[in-house]
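Give me structure tokens for this 262-residue protein.
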Amino acid sequence: MDLQQAYLAAVVLAALALTLADKEAKKLWERLEHLDPNHDGVVTEQELKDFAFWERMKDLREDAEEQWTSLQVAPGDKLTFDWYKQKSYTDDFEDDLGPYGRTVQQDHTRFNASDQNKDGALDKEEFLAFLWAEEYPHMHDLITLETIEDLDMNGDGALNYNEYRGEGDGGDFMEDFEGDMEFKEFDKDEDGQLSHAEVKEWILGPTLDIIKEDEEKVATVLSKLDKDEDGKLTRSEIEADPEVIETLRYDEDDDQFLHDEF
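Here you go.
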């Protein structure tokens, strides 16, 4: 092979390498389509957090989509509470309780809290917050209030040990009080009952832990990829080591994200 042929071969190999790199980059960004939603080529810390949240919510989005379809919301329309009530509260449910064990009033209050733009109807993202309120910090106080309403038999706004254990059935469990270390762990002020803040930690602790884990993962991603330390990532910084971003993706085979409807 003469010098000219060697040069041409090198050019072809370089072009092929660039083509393969472009294809790999394209595949990467197809997998990470929600990472840079405004397509400005820069990923901020908040966008990293939003991406981690989006990944964690994939299975719940599918569930919400199925329920949206079952409610027969017209294409392009939003969901009003009157329509939700008409479709959800049927003769199949007793004692004025709907499909999730909440009263009409509780569902109406939750519906209004989910309606962040206050237009009187829910879009699909707001409907997701209505269904899976524990995943949305702006809904956490409401979930706590719902729990207290369900269990607080004496109406004092807190949960004593019998209410905590009895799930509202009026039972007497005080003989177990001294040995119940879980209750005592949540009863931070040791007054024998759970306040609003203590009930929130009881019912939302696992979710709050996951949110904290996501924030720690985002901080790790930035520390590894943000070479110029400007608090955001360029596409070239991400493409330099894409496996780091993959730590924010949700593994469908990972069972750490378990959800219980309250």
